[in-house]
Structures are given as structure tokens and as C-alpha cells.
Amino acid sequence: MAQPRISAYLPPDIDPTKAALAFGRRALPKLNEELQSPELLTQQRALMALCDLVHDPEKVYQAIALGFLDSLKTLLVHQDQTVRQKTTEVLSIMALHSIGREGLIRSGVISALAGLLDDPVDICRKNTHQTLDMLAKLPEGAGGVLQADLIPPLVLKLKTELDEIQELILDTLSNCLHVEVSKALAAGAVPVLKEKLSHPSTAIRSKAAWVLLEISSHAEGKIAVCEEEVIPELVRLLEDTQPEVQVNSAGALMFAIVTPQGRSSAMGAEAIPPLLALVAEETSKARLNAIKSLTLLAELPEGRKALLDHRATFQRCLEDPSEAVQRAAEIALDVIDWKP
Amino acid sequence: PSDMASDVPYSFCSQPRSVRPRPKYREQSNAAQTEKGPVRYCNIMVDPRVVRGNVLSVRPPPPQSTEPLSTLEVKRQRRAQKQLLARKLTQEEIQRRTPEPVKGREHVYVQTELYLEEISDRIIEIDGECQTDDFLDRPPTPLFIPAKTGTDVATQIEEGELFDFDIEVKPILEVLVGKTVEQALLEVMEEEELAQLWSHQRAFIELRNAEFAELQRLEEQDRRIREEKERRRLEHLEKLRKQKETAEKIAARAFAQRYLADLIPSVFNNLHNSGFFYDPVERDIETEFLPWLMSEVEETLQKKVLGRMMLDSLIRMVVEKRLDEFSHPPPSDQTEVPAEEPRATDAAPQVSDEADAADQPVAEKEETDQPFAEEE
């Protein structure tokens, strides 16, 4: 089988900023000792070499078995910014491997990363958030982030951080809020997200709508969303030009209008015409979510009256290639035709 | 040496060690190197290298013995020496292999090797001696340039003789470019796979969200219907309860009415009987007039009684007096008697004036009672 590299080892002294690697199995233990040395240059060079090594999953496994994470944790609070930057980079690359993720969660790196959220250097913060994002994709990681009580600081950071870091924070939040929502609501996440819905960047809008979707899939989240009057905003976003934003806002609506207050506020915001427009488009990804939202609205008498005229749209949905859309359209037709 | 060895408790010139057992087979060259197992100690009882028998039997006699030897011991020694000699001879005889020489012949030792050796007892010695000179100043060693030996040969590589660059570089370039392109392809495929996985996950998440929303919608519907049912049930229960209460009230009312229908007459009767309703005039008459009347009547009667009593006492007195007078004639007082008699007669007519005719029989009765009372 062809290997991407001819030799696993680069020629020696090709990069003077990196420490020299010992041969074979001795490479990582020697790097570990160098990381703990008191001299700054040695530590920096060792970190540069470690960054390159950590792309290989076997090296990640070996590193975690040797207990690299403890020395990396002490380096996270180093004064020198290069050390911190490289350490966070190493941790973010480790989090890309599944073994790395498990090891990071087990050794409690999450609480150590909590201290870096306020770091003055941008790259450190970005790497930290990347690490947290990858970790939160695992259920245990999301649980770890919740336990380390990181949600309130993350919500606060949403207001002040740079755009790309905000995207990472929104991803992390969406995965964590999938599990539990009360702390975020206590930290006032819904008003912050409501602001983000009007952000100029597409990615941030769609991700904020995604986080709102996750929040409103829980019962207390629904109540909070109705109280903060996010539903008119979401209805406005249904007419957005970008498809991802439409999909996510339709999904958030779908969950939020399950409660009676949500439904009445959606009717008040006249959600039916944009939702119908989304359903009518043949290739829209938001079709499924829009059909579900309309089903919910059809349970109200006014909604049913309005939708009785548009049954043809739903009939056309029955021929959609996706099976889920067909089923949703059938259910919608049932609900519209229901008589008390 | 003994002084030097005093600080060490025990020291040997050569450490005592046990002897290795005698190997059964000859040492093979390779076997000795490969295996060196644990050192086995041999049993000196069965080791053929250890001398058997009485090691003290052949002891050379000490040069000067302090005790004179007894004849017994001397004999024993001589006998032992003889035995030794005899054993030696027999051994030598057994060991000899070559037969005895034939008569008239002699055995001679002859060397049969290629090169003859001179065997002699005396070793050829040569004396040699040396002596160092006084140290002289040594001049520096001259530079050693070995003498030129051999022949000079020159060579030159002309262009195009060694290799053709364009032809030779091809396979190297192919490898380089191929590896790079393969690496790039691998990375692109990895990215594609990742994107595919992400889209798969996205689709799954969408489906899951849709199903979840459906579930919540149905839950909500179910909750509404259940609440509605509960409310209606409670209303119905309330209605039934109120109905029952009303019926009970009506029944109670009817019963109470019937029960108390003749309450009023009976109450009035009772009250009337106990005297709550009275005619005021009648009551007035009863309470005031009649008692007064009765008290007046009583007074009158008392007066009558008093009068009768007075009369009785008068009569008694008179009778007693007359009895006294008739018993012993007193000179006196016919005037007193008529004074009392008018008084009594005054009382009597008053009494008779006031009293009714109906009272007279009563007064007479009382009169008759009085004398009975007096007599008794």
C-alpha cells in the first residue's frame, strides 16, 4: 500500500525550530522530558515537534498513555504566548482523534481550558474553542463541558468575541444544549441569540438558529423562547436568502410552536405564508421542517381555515423523493382534514 | 602478610571453590558458548577424581621422629613400601602393549615423522646480553615520505559517459510526483469522506429533529385532549353533584314542611296552655282584684273570728264570774257586769250587723268549737 510519506521521519535538522526526535519508541518520552525542562527554548522546540507528531493517531495513543496530558495542562498557564499557542494547537489536533478525545475528557483538560477563555492572544482562544467544539460533539464531552460549568462564560463570550470564534462557540453550545438547557437559560442565552439572528454573517445566523432549535427542543426552552419573543424574528428569517438559515429557522420554529403560546405568537407574526413558500420549493432542504411547522399551526382553527385552501401544495409534497417528507405531508393532510 | 591480613577477617590467596563436575562428553566448540547452565556441584563421594581409600596409609616417615619407632611400626612401613612397589610393577606390566622382542632382536625407538627431532637432555642455550647507552639528544624524526612505488594512472569522465540525466531523472521524478499526487489524492478522498459523513449526520439529525417535533406535537395534542377531557369530566361531576344537592334540598324541604305543618297549632296550644296568651283585664282581675278580695274576705272573717273569740271569752268570764258569785255570794258589782255586757252586746250587734246570715252557722260552729277547745 502506498504511504503518503516515503519515510516516516523527515531529514534531520530540516527545521531548526523543532527539537530533534529520538529514534523509535524513545521519541515521545524524550519530548515529555523536554517539555518539563525549565528552559524556555527547549520547551518551545519540543512543542513544535509534538505538533507535527500528533497528526498520527498511533502517536496520540502513545502520548496519552505516557501521560503527556499532565505536562500539557501545566503548560497551558505558561506566561509565554508561543508556548500557550502551541499547547492549545496540540490539544486541538489531539481532539480530532477519537482516542485523543477520550483521553482529554478523562484527564479533565476541559476545566483547564476554562482558564484560557480570557487569553489575550487570539490564536490561543481560537484553538481552545476548537478543542471544546470537537469535544462537545461526543456525549461525554458535552457532559464534561456542562459539568465544568462553562456554559455561562461561553454565552458571555458570544457578545464580545471575534466572528470565527463566535461560530465555534455556537457549535459548542448547540451540542451541549442538546443535553441540558437550564444553565444556559439562567445565563440569559436567548436574548443574546436573538441578537445574533440579525448578524450580517450567514454562518453565524444559521448557527444561532440551530442553537435556538436545540434550546426549544426542551420544555423550559420553549417557554423562554416564547417569552423573549424570538418567534417573530424566526419568522422573519424564513424569508432569508441563504438556504441554511431558512432550514435552521424553520427547524427552530418547528420546536418552538409546540406550546400554545408559541402557536398564537406564530399566528400573530403571520408565519403561514413564508412557510408555504418554503414548502412549495421543490429542492428546498427546509421542506421537512416547514411541513412540520405547518402541521402544528393547522391544529389551530384559524390555521386550518387558512391551510384548507393550500392543500394542493401538500399533495405535491407527497411525490418528494425523501420518505420523511412524504410521511410528514401525509400527517399534515390528516391534520388539516380533521373535523372535531 | 599475616599483619596485612589482620584487618580482613579471612582472606585467601585463591578463593576456595567447588570443582565443576566432570562432563560426560567432550566439550563441543559451539555447545560451550551457547549454554552455560547453573553450576552443578558434583558429589565428591562418587567423583573419580577424588582419591579413594586410606589417604593416610602411605605417609613418608618423618625425618626425625621424637619417639623411637617400635619394631611393629617399622615392619608395617616396610611391608607397605613393598606392596607399593609390587603394585607399580604389575601396573607397568599390564600397561605394556608391545610384545617382547624375539630372541636375538632388540626393540629400538625410531622417529617416524617427516622431520627428525634431535632428542637430548641438554637444552641448547645461547647467551645474549644487552646494555643501554647513555641518553643522547635525539634529533627530530625526519618526515617520512615513502618512496614512490607503482605506476601513475589518470582518468577523466567525459560528458555523456557517466549517465544521461534526462533518462535517469525520469524514474526519480515519477516517484516524486507520483507520491505527491497520491498524497494529495488521499487527502482529498479523506476530505470527501469527512464531508460525506457530515452530510449523513446532518440528514440523520434533520430526520431525528423532525421526528422529535412530531413526537412533541403529538404529546402536546394528547396533553390538550387529556386536559379537555379532564375538564369536561370535572364539569360533569360538578353538574351531577349540584343536581344531587338540589334534589336533596327539595326532599328535605318537603319533609320539613310536612313535619312542621301542625307545628304552629301545637305551639299555640302549648303556649296557650302554659298561659302565655292572656286577656289583660282577666289577668288584672285575677292578679290584683281577687287577691285583694280574698284578703278583705279574710280580714272580715278574722274579725268575725276575733269577735267570736271575744264573745267566747266574755261568755266564759261571765260564766266563771257567775259561778264564783253563785258559789260564794260577793257583795258587789252588778254594775260591772252590765258595763261589760253592753260592751259585749255592742260587739255582738256589730258583728251581727256586718256578718251575713250565711256566716252565722259558721259562727255557731266556731262557738261550739271554742268550748271544746277550752275544755280540752
Automatic annotation (TrEMBL), chain A:
GO BP field: intracellular protein transport; vesicle-mediated transport
InterPro entries (alphabetical): ARM-like (IPR011989), ARM-type_fold (IPR016024), Armadillo (IPR000225), Clathrin/coatomer_adapt-like_N (IPR002553), RSP14 (IPR042856)
Pfam families the record matches: Adaptin_N
Top-level taxon of origin: Eukaryota
Alphabetized Gene3D superfamilies for the sequence: Leucine-rich Repeat Variant
Membrane topology: Peripheral membrane protein
Domain Clathrin/coatomer adaptor adaptin-like N-terminal intervals: 31-337
One GO term describing the cellular component: membrane coat
Localization (cell): Endomembrane system
Protein name in UniProt: RSP14 protein
Lineage: Eukaryota, Metazoa, Chordata, Craniata, Vertebrata
Gene: Rsph14
TrEMBL record, chain B:
InterPro entries tied to this protein: Radial_spoke_3 (IPR009290)
Subcellular location: Cytoplasm, Cytoskeleton, Flagellum axoneme
Annotated region described as Disordered, given as residue ranges: 1-36, 325-376
Coiled-coil stretches noted in the UniProt entry, renumbered to this chain: 208-257
Biased composition (Acidic residues): 366-376
A single Gene Ontology CC term: cilium
One Pfam family, short name: Radial_spoke_3
Keyword list, A-Z: Cell projection, Cilium, Coiled coil, Cytoplasm, Cytoskeleton, Flagellum, Phosphoprotein
Protein family (similarity comment): Belongs to the flagellar radial spoke RSP3 family.
PANTHER family noted in UniProt: FLAGELLAR RADIAL SPOKE PROTEIN 3, RADIAL SPOKE HEAD PROTEIN 3 HOMOLOG
Protein name: RSPH3 protein
Protein source organism: Certhia brachydactyla
Lineage: Eukaryota, Metazoa, Chordata, Craniata, Vertebrata
